[in-house]
Amino acid sequence: MSQQPLQEFEVTRLGAAGDGIATGADGRPVFIPFALPGERVRARLGGKLGDGQAAELTELLRPAPERVEPPCPFFGRCGGCAMQHMAIPPYSAWKRARLAEALSRAGYPDAPVAEPAVTPPATRRRADLAVRRVDGVPVLGFHGRGSGTVVDLTTCVVLDPALVALFEPLRKLLRGLSCFRREASVVLNLLDTGPDLLLRLDGEPTPADRSLLAAFATAHGLPRIACAPLKGMVSENVAQIGPVSIALGGVPVAPAPGAFLQATPQGEAAIVQAVLDGLPAKLPGKARIADLYAGLGTLSFPLATRARVAAYEGAPDAVAGLDAAARKAGGKVIATRRDLSRQPLTVKELDAFAAVVLDPPFAGAADQMPALARSKVQRIIYVSCNPAALSRDAKTLHAAGWRLLSATPVDQFLWSAQLEAVTVFTRER
Fold this sequence. Notes:
Elements: E1 6-14, E2 20-23, E3 29-32, E4 40-49, E5 52-62, H1 88-105, E6 117-118, E7 126-134, E8 137-141, H2 161-164, H3 167-175, E9 183-191, E10 194-201, H4 207-220, E11 224-229, E12 236-240, E13 246-248, E14 251-253, H5 265-278, E15 288-292, H6 300-303, E16 308-313, H7 316-329, E17 333-337, H8 347-350, E18 355-358, H9 369-374, E19 379-384, H10 387-399, E20 403-411, E21 420-426
Helix pairs in contact: 1-10
């Protein structure tokens, strides 16, 4: 099949994924990765993408003043970043506009959107790396943009250097593990006690593998290494040379292997501050706050400085860690295991709280929103990691008469198209 001929395009705007968007000859949008608004480019059309066509940038004819040199040598091949070619001020403005647009679609056209809190490079404390064995050699890194191939990384400008320093030692370790045959994943969490490693493998660790893993933990200061089947959920600690702990709101929590953490300490701090700022200025002495989709307690423990907290979480490992830490901390946080997609809190249950904080997964909180919208709660603080889901859920609140008080974008996935936000809604007039 012959290739499409090259065409010239004027890029007019950025799409939700960070692609430059031009208008094709047929009037449909053309999505061009790594192109910026105001640029004239030469590109080759590809297949259908959404309501338009994908294209490959082949030549930059007129660069935009916002264009900068990407700091990472793997940018463009690695799928981890999409926007390193754009200067930070216009990049931040684009992310702020994405949140404003999402809230406008929900019925809040004049949303008071703050300037984004942008986290610095080299601070991300969590990495989920893919591994393939190619000609007997482990290839370790993130997936390539739009493909299942693995880009073999030697550095990463967004990850904490303590995690990057493990790339080459991990390759050497994986080369000698018989339980790694063709495919694996490496989940790294940088805890207060050091890097925590979960290996998802396509084989069962042998006694020799376990000895290698224990030696690796000792040599590189990893307090724990756990293994799990590549497609399974249950992990096993195969090496533990010390305790694992991370402080959330000043409370030490022992997370399960591969546990979800906020991506950066700075991003976590910005989210926590925006949530606390969103609470009513005065809460009654016996007030209670509900923390929905509470995870390990990232928000539960800071909220407990203002009132008693009822924390709800569906993941067994997360709620177990939260509950154990809460009991040691003195009982201002009560953890309950509850799958809020299958069993959302009822209006009657919600009416018992002075405020409700929710931090749902990427898909949002569609099952919980109808009861929240009808409840007598005076303040809802919604922490979102997906503007599209936030728009849908905020629309439910708008239809029920809720007012938007504030919206704070938090960019802790630097140079990606991902965006987190803290939005505060009230019944007060």
